[in-house]
Amino acid sequence: MDSNSDEVKCKNSEAESELVKSEPCGPGTGIPSIWACLIVTIITAVLSNLAVDWTKSKYLLETKKVETQPPKYAIFLHDSDDKHLRHVIEGLNQFGYERVGVNDSWDLLWAHDYPFSALPKLKNLESHRFVNHFPGCGFLTNKVDLCTSELPFLPRAFRLPEQKEAFLDYAEKHPETLYVQKHNQHRHIKIRSPKEIGLWANDSFVQEFIQRPFLVDGHKFDIGVYVVITSINPLRVYIYTGDVLFRYCPTKYYPFDPEDVDKYIVGDDYLPTWEVPSLRKYYNRFGGSMRSAFEAYVRDQSLDPSKIWPQVEHIIRTTILAKEKDIAGILKNYKTHNFFDLMRFDLFIDEDLNVRLMEANMSPNLSSAHFKPNSLLYKQLLYSVFNLVGIRPWSATGETMFSQSTEIVTADKNLATNLNQCVSNDCDKSCNKEECSLCLLCLRGSEYQLLQKAHQEHLHRVDMKRIVPQPILDFSTFDIIDETKNLSSKNAWLTRWFYNKCEYDPTWCT
What we know:
- By secondary structure, the chain is α+β, with helices and mostly antiparallel strands.
- The protein has helices spanning about 5-20, 35-65, 85-95, 140, 145, 165-175, 275-285, 290-300, 310-330, 375-390, 410-415, 420-425, 445-460, 480-485, 490-505, and strands at about 70-75, 100, 110, 130, 155-160, 180-185, 190, 205-210, 220-230, 235-240, 245-250, 340-350, 355-360, 465-470.
- The strands form three sheets. Strands 9, 10, 11, 12, 13 and 14 form a six-stranded antiparallel β-sheet that branches.
- Helix 1 packs antiparallel against helix 2 (about 35-65) and helix 7 (about 275-285) packs across helix 8.
């Protein structure tokens, strides 16, 4: 909920505070030193309180403006077919939202396609408007950019044609390695020998093919984990824990045949969980989820599935942190950062239960037209996402999407942390110390709103789990200094706030 006016106001207040603090306080000033110091202290405290109170009042007034009528949403598509967004549309309608055109006045824009090139007005969003993508999210979802990032959990890849010489050298040194050539459109993927690779193909890359996948009843599979980014710099990321999308190749992997792509490529007509023989009893008869049915199968093989999910979280966290700076660079061109992003990370598992990343999808398929049983997954996912990002059911009482951003839900006492440190460092007199950066009196307007949003997300997570900032599994062994030493200043600041909250309330640890 940041705005230029907020920053100007807060900076002016801070400048006034620094001007007062710079006045000499002692003999020879014409004022007895004790009175001069008292005046400095009082004025500093008043200005600090005014800055916070002004920001809070402005925020509540802006929220109040949209409470008098049902919120509006628009759908952005390159064509008129919105059937693949049926669950999104139904969910918003059930929440009491009214659909309008993209060029009308809306509160929420749900874009299936990347909207920022076609809609330049999104650079100047009003504070009550939100969009379901971040400008610059292509740094994550562009397959060429992501897969050639040289992250350790990505199969080795080479961008073409720029890295063709490096690829040929690698292929010569690893003669047993198989490769697939991919494009951003993710079409016509097939195993090829180095001689068959189109080395001059633009917007493509060649990637090592991992040959020893973990199989279920002989079928290779991938897993789709739904991820929501709610803030960039500082970064806040959540994963959906209600279930994981498992998609199995329709043909058994062995005997292996590179000409039969149904053995190793997951397509639109994948084999669903409820049709995999060893998973049927867990999913159909005993009511398990896709994830729990898979975990039961892994345990049947005398293996431990709990090894998988910490790897998944680490991969998603590391990947987004690696791209955050690039996305933040694009965000600098936008007046307000009223964006969130729902994407799906696709991963696969080798026979040793090591997890590898395949790609991240900007607008994951949320249509159950092909597989009806998936409708529950998508509905529950969207319910969690809506609540997390502040989309609330509207009623005749005037409660809207972001109307709960009030002191009823989030008051000063909910944001204040580490009071002893704030007092011992005299943070009510000077905010220059790093130890004062999280003290309520020292928060800038934009910082106050960031913590306000983080607090409300925590209260309305439903089945979303925070993975950035890092969850604190054991407070007694969590090293906050080591955790924050390689983070940006803003990410370290937010991580310390969650750490402080966790110290006194274990529900904030994860």
